[in-house]
């Protein structure tokens, strides 16, 4: 059984948001159409408390996009974004997937960031998504959303490493691209055996 996993299509990752991904809002119509092809759809939502470790504002003398060392490795620092229950953390108003079955929130622990839908950035603290999918008998995942070089990539790589068959729908994503992060993401996904496709190819093969 398969599911579409829609990563972080939230106001703060769209133009005008606090951590805007260039053209981030352009994924919305593509994803709305894609979602109609899937019986099972899961959404993720970046959901940070004030003073989150990943915010540059939490570290004296640091600026957004600086990289620091934390307990679990390197951490890119971001502008404050996706504050719990804020407008910026809400899904884009045009995202239209009424049949979505689950919303996974992540990044809600103050001291640890969480890009992946499966694990927080220590690669150990589970979100529960793998267990949910396994209990439901879902083995094949298609992924879309924001941002390709962070949350989509890390979710895809973790999913593949956990034994799911993961395909990223490239034109249903957009990237941030900081410090070579797009190239690094493609390398990571390639190395993990993540498949890539486009919404059009998917439509053709599923007809
Ligand atoms: C994301 C940076 C920080 C993402 C979330 O959704 O890709 N990126 N928090
Ligand atoms: Zn975040």
Please, could you describe this protein's structure?
It is a single chain. With 207 residues, this protein is of the alpha/beta class. 25% of the residues lie in helices and 22% in strands. The chain is globular, with a radius of gyration of 16 Å. The two termini are 17 Å apart. 42% of the residues are buried. The structure holds pyrazine-2-carboxylic acid and zinc ion (ZN).
Helices and strands in order, then pairings?
Elements lengths: L1 E6 L19 H9 L5 E6 L20 E4 L2 E4 L25 E5 L22 H8 L3 E7 L1 H14 L3 E10 L6 H12 L2 E3 L1 H8 L1
Parallel strand pairs: 1-2, 1-6, 2-5, 6-7, 7-8
Antiparallel strand pairs: 3-4
**Main sheet characteristics:** 6 strands, parallel
Residue windows where pLDDT falls under 50 for at least 5 positions: none
Describe the global form: globular
Distance between the termini: 17 Å
Question: Helicity, in percent?
Answer: 10-25%
Rg (CA only): 16 Å
Mean pLDDT: 97
User: Ligands in the structure?
Assistant: pyrazine-2-carboxylic acid, zinc ion
